[in-house]
Structure formats: C-alpha cells, structure tokens
Amino acid sequence: MPASKRLGRPRRGTESARSDALFAAATHVFLRDGYGAASIDKVAHEAGVSTRTIYERFKNKADLLGAVISRLVERDMAQAFATDDLDRLDPRDALMTIGRVLTGRARDFDAMALFRIVVTESQRFPALAALMRTGIQTQIEAPIAEYFRGQAARGVLVISDAERAAPLFVQMVYARVHECILFGSTEETVNLDCDSHLRLVIDIFLRGTLPRGPTNR
C-alpha cells in the first residue's frame, strides 16, 4: 500500500501496534542515517504515519530518540524490579540479577549502535545527552536506589545515601561494557564475559556496604 494511503492518526484499536511500528521505524532511521541526518519526516515516511502524529507524542527528534533508547531498557528493568522476590534474595544474587539485566540490554545490537550515536553527537546536540542521562536516572538508577533503601531499612546493607550509591553501582557495572562499545568491536562486546566482571564489581561493592561483623572486618 502506498505510504500516502497509510498516513494519518492510528485507527482505534491499533495504537499498540502502531507504536511498535513507530519505534521500529525511528530506530531504523537513526541507525541508518545517524542523528544529524535523521528527521521526523523520514521517520514518519518509514512508519507510514503523518508528521503530525509523531509531533503529538514527541517534541522533536531528540525527544523521539530518547524514547527509543528508553524503550530498549524499560521492559527488562520493569521485569527485574517487578517482584518482591528481589528483596528476599541474598544481596549478592539480587545485584547479579540486576547486573545481568543491565549488561544484557547494553550489548543488544541496536542499543550499542544508539549508544555510539549519542556519545558521538552529544557535543553538537547537548539536549540529546541530557535526555539520555534523564532516562538512565529514571529507569535504572531510581529503582536501584529504591532497592538499596529497602535493604538499608532492613539492616541488610549499610548505605547512607542510596541516591548516590545507585549511580556508582551502575557505572561500575557498565564500565567494561561501555569501554568495549566505544573502543572495541561489536563482536568483542557481544562475547564479553560479563559474569566475571559482575562478580568482581559486586564483591567490591558489598565489601563497602555489608554490615560490619566479626566475619566482615
């Protein structure tokens, strides 16, 4: 069907499918053209919708790319924090679960490519970097901070400032993966032994946050 026949507002009952198609189209355009050359017009044509439909949801292409990136992580993070079972796990196991979600999503092919785009374009388009930073704070660091607060309230961990501890933990988890994404090959990043890195990160982190007892001195 010609694109002109498909343009316009999503029909009732198809919002979810149209939303999936829009994000898929936006991802394709950003990866194909780069952020600078991408445009709302191109995304609209790729998705088979009007530009008005996109502007009703997103202020500009930076906002759209921020939503694309957020969409890549929000489902996995929601699953990781959707159950109270996480609070009942040994902290080492809980943090390993969280770490595997983060490193697994970061090594997704689209996620790697979009991360490189944001890093490359952040100086020319600071609003883009700000959107990505806000997304990380909201979708990753905030739930981890909430987990830390809960563990501290139970006396399982000793963390006086969960809001500062969460990004420190996230940065430790991402350090090796982001180094590979920026300076290594895609193949190297995909095949990275993240579990050994995570075990070391968690060991270092817990040495500073577990309650001090006779066996922890």
Q: Can you give the mean pLDDT? A: 85
The number of helical runs is: 12
Structural class: mainly alpha
Helix-strand sequence: HHHHHHHHHHHH
Q: Low-confidence runs (pLDDT<50, min 5 residues)?
A: 1-13
CATH topology of the largest domain: Tetracycline Repressor, domain 2
* Proportion of helical residues: over 70%
Q: What is the number of beta strands? A: 0
Q: How much of the sequence is in beta strands?
A: under 5%
Q: What gyration radius follows from the Cα positions, in whole Å?
A: 20 Å
Main beta sheet: strand number and arrangement? Answer: none
**CATH homologous superfamily classification of the largest domain:** Tetracycline Repressor, domain 2
Shape: elongated
Q: What is the top-level CATH class of the largest domain? A: Mainly Alpha
Number of domains: 2
Distance between the termini: 70 Å
CATH-defined architecture of the largest domain: Orthogonal Bundle
Describe the structure.
The chain is mainly α and 217 residues long. It folds into two domains: 1-57, Homeodomain-like (Arc Repressor Mutant, subunit A, Orthogonal Bundle); 62-217, Tetracycline Repressor, domain 2 (Orthogonal Bundle). It has twelve helices and no strands. Helix 5 runs parallel beside helix 9 and helix 9 (126-153) crosses helix 10 (162-183). The longest helix is centred in the middle third of the chain and has 28 residues, at 126-153. The model is unreliable at 1-13 (pLDDT under 50).
Per-chain topology:
Blueprint: H1 3-6, H2 15-37, H3 40-47, H4 51-55, H5 61-80, H6 85-88, H7 91-106, H8 109-121, H9 126-153, H10 162-183, H11 186-190, H12 194-207
Helix pairs in contact: 2-3, 2-5, 2-8, 5-7, 5-9, 7-10, 7-12, 9-10, 10-12
